[in-house]
Write a structure and sequence with these properties.
5-stranded mixed β-sheet, globular
């Protein structure tokens, strides 16, 4: 496909059979304490790794305890929602089944998919807003030999929305990789960077054949907006 989105991908914008299937969402909760919020880029990178950790976890595969929920989620639109927690909220979230992934300053807990209207009460009460984060210093240049999730310089997103979009990009890259490349990435600990290119480079990236996330437009931005290009060394032409 010209936009780099995998054929039949739930990230496609047009109506497909996935819209008719029961809809699920992958919950992610970011720990954002008032006294020590994480850096924005680290939060985005940690959220992307959390999605990859969930996708590759043995409980998500085969006959694992989360496998049915993962299949139901991936049979429909691939929705992700990021909520914030602090203090007692975070402690309550930590005891629910899921996986916590830690970055340099960020902590993100990812949970097995739930129905859109079936969130556990301790997650449902968490706020989506309030995830506006900043980088104390500009991120260093990304390692050209490592995977990079390139965020659109043309679309303004809250940190929570951008975390979900980075997760989409990581998932598209995962789907496109061979089993051997997936294993190598997992065994290395899912190294990746999230960066924003110049407008000129962005235009090149979106036409390079790499996987592209086009948002369905449920929140914040217009349907069809190109938000992320997933650049993995194994996918480069």
């Amino acid at each position: 496909m010209a936009d780099g989105t995998a054929q039949g991908s739930p990230f496609r914008v047009e109506s497909v059979s996935r819209d008719e299937a029961p809809q699920f969402v992958l919950p992610l909760v970011a720990r954002i304490e008032r006294s020590a919020p994480p850096a924005r880029t680290d939060a985005l990178e940690t959220a992307a790794r959390a999605v990859l950790v969930m996708l590759s976890d043995e409980r998500s595969l085969g006959d694992g305890q989360w496998a049915r929920a993962m299949r139901d989620w991936q049979d429909a639109r691939i929705r992700k929602v990021v909520r914030r927690a602090r203090g007692a909220e975070w402690r309550r979230a930590e005891v629910l089944p899921g996986i916590t992934v830690t970055g340099k300053s960020a902590e993100v807990r990812v949970f097995p998919p739930v129905p859109l209207d079936g969130w556990p009460k301790d997650l449902a009460r968490l706020q989506v807003s309030g995830t506006d984060l900043d980088d104390p210093e500009p991120p260093v240049d990304a390692d050209p030999t490592a995977p990079v999730l390139w965020m659109s310089p043309e679309v303004d997103m809250s940190a929570g929305k951008a975390m979900a979009q980075a997760g989409h990009g990581a998932q598209l890259a995962w789907w496109e990789l061979s089993d051997a490349d997936r294993t190598a990435w997992r065994d290395a600990g899912f190294p990746l960077a999230v960066r924003t290119p110049t407008p000129g480079r962005w235009r090149h990236l979106t036409t390079s054949g790499l996987p592209v996330v086009r948002d369905a437009g449920f929140t914040e931005i217009a349907p069809g907006s190109c938000t992320v290009v997933a650049d993995h060394p194994a996918l480069r032409g």
